[in-house]
Amino acid sequence: MLKRAALVLAIFLLALPAGATSPKQVTLDYNRGTKTLTVTADHYTFAPTMHFVKTIEVEVDGVKVTTKTMTGQTNNNQQIVKIPLPDVKPGAKITVTCYCSLFGSKSAEITAP
Q1: What's the CA angle centered on 110, arms 54 and 33, to 5 degrees?
Q2: What is the pLDDT of residue 15?
Q3: What is the pTM of this model?
């Protein structure tokens, strides 16, 4: 009985990465008026509290300025996060990397208006 339970657990754990998907696309929008970056990560999941975009790292001109950690996803198709960036100057390069809680990541960058 114990061997069977161990086998089922091993199969389940090996199958997790196969079912996990990294974010497919990351869209960034910096609003100069509100000094806020909106990050939209396209990431399908059937269980947004277990498999989700967990971490979002933000760099400005190559310097990490913030890391956001989530406990779930906005909905089954996207993670949407608003991040205040009050010190961004026009022309600065904003780079964002979104990490799946199970597997993979996706990055995007924009130039601040």
Answers
A1: 90
A2: 43
A3: 0.82
- pLDDT at residue number 18: 44
Q: In what order do the strands lie in the sheet with 105-111?
A: 63-69, 53-60, 93-100, 105-111
How is the chain classified by DSSP, letter by letter? -HHHHHHHHHHHHHHHHHH----SEEEEEEETTTTEEEEEEE---S-TTTSSEEEEEEEETTEEEEEEE-SS-SSSSEEEEEEE-TTPPTT-EEEEEEEESSS-EEEEEEE--
pLDDT at 21: 85
Backbone angles phi, psi at 26, to 5 degrees: -120, 125
For the chain, the structural domain boundaries read 21-111
Q: What is the CATH number of domain 21-111?
A: 2.60.40.730
pLDDT mean values, one per 10 residues, the chain (113 residues)? 51 46 95 98 94 97 98 96 97 98 96 97
Contacts of 19 (CB under 8 A, 6+ apart): 51, 102
